[in-house]
Amino acid sequence: MARPDKVTAVEEMTDKFRNSTATMVTAYTGLTVAQLQDLRRSLGENAQYRVVKNTLTKIAANEAGISHLDELFVGSSAVAFVTGDPVEAAKGLRDFAKDNPNLIIKGGVLDGKALSADEIKKLADLESREVLLAKLAGGMKASMAKAAATFQAPLTKFVRTADALRSQVEQGGAGTPAPAEAESAE
Questions:
Q1: Alpha-carbon distance 63 to 142, whole Å?
Q2: Average confidence score pLDDT of the chain
Q3: Residue 44 — left, alpha, or beta (φ > 0 → left; ψ -120 to 50 → alpha)?
């Protein structure tokens, strides 16, 4: 019979797996409590870093429908549950691991797809979602301005031609036959 505290822990982690956009598993042996606190801060506001028990975490991951993490839960394990932008958390892990070689990125999951440690490091090289959206908006704005200029050029030429013709008609038809002259020529 399972102990109630373990059942509760599994249920809680199962919910975290289901509600996370990304999950990243690390080994943390040799890190101090102060270093773990620094790591938690470096992951950003949208990630929660927890030291976990391997057996309970395997059960929770499997209950959440994530079976490809089982081989990662060997030795000391901690999991970063990311609910926001996974790039920020991946950068936090990568940068912290550069300064603290005791932190080892094992792998993870992003939107249900398994990620290797190298793929998490590549994810960290991406720009944040906000930066990518800003670049997209800037590109769209530039394209719209270019399109507007393209449409404006023929319209401007048409308006200038119409203004020139109106001016000629108002000045007595210089260069064009007046209506009375056109009738007498027939």
A1: 48
A2: 82
A3: left
